[in-house]
Write a structure and sequence with these properties.
About 40% of the residues lie in helices and about 30% in strands. By secondary structure, it is an alpha/beta fold. The protein has a five-stranded antiparallel beta sheet. Helix 6 links the parallel strand 7 and strand 8. The longest helix has 20 residues. It is globular.
């Protein structure tokens, strides 16, 4: 996960998705498969194109949080486009966090005002952190308001905002009326 974040910064991920979405037809891709298992679910998400062949494998295990481990675990395997030899195995959870937020960042480039600076984030988990990074990568965010039912993680996200130099604080849902960006 750390190596992926180091090698693919959020701004570069947003740019790469912009290029991919502009040149590839997503409707031509294979369907996802959802398999029920004795202890949860397994999702298989295949994809292929000129750049390679890959599959994201995701397990959803409801009992895991009670064991102190994540509910969702994932890996992504990328194969060479022509030889189909395996090239890399990535942390699928980190990839998902990066890709999901990068898509939001790309959409923000197209629909948000250039000067959008006030960000409200609902939630304080992995996606909230990734979306903070994405919004800061594509807009001049100066204010962060975190709305979450989980006080500890929300305070940690506020601290992350403060480390980024933002005016960051906890807030209530009604704060969306003053927001430029809402995630």
């Amino acid at each position: 996960a750390e190596e992926l974040r180091a090698r693919l910064p959020m701004a570069a991920a947003v740019d790469a998705l912009g290029e991919a979405f502009g040149t590839q037809d997503p409707s031509s891709g294979p369907l996802r498969t959802h398999v029920e298992t004795p202890h949860g679910s397994l999702l298989l998400m295949p994809a292929f194109g000129e750049a390679g062949v890959g599959v994201k494998l995701v397990s959803l295990t409801p009992a895991n949080p009670g064991r102190g481990i994540p509910f969702i675990n994932a890996s992504y395997v990328l194969f060479d486009a022509e030889t189909q030899a395996p090239e890399v195995v990535l942390d699928g959870s980190a990839l998902t966090a990066l890709r999901t937020a990068a898509v939001s960042g790309l959409a923000t480039r197209f629909v948000a005002r250039e000067d959008a600076a006030r960000l409200v984030i609902f939630g304080a988990g992995v996606q909230a952190r990734s979306h903070l990074e994405a919004m800061c990568a594509v807009r001049p965010v100066t204010e962060l308001l975190v709305v979450s039912r989980s006080r500890g993680p929300a305070e940690a996200l506020v601290e992350e905002g403060l480390r980024r130099g933002l005016a960051a604080r906890l807030g209530e849902p009604r704060a969306v009326g003053d927001a430029d960006l809402i995630c």
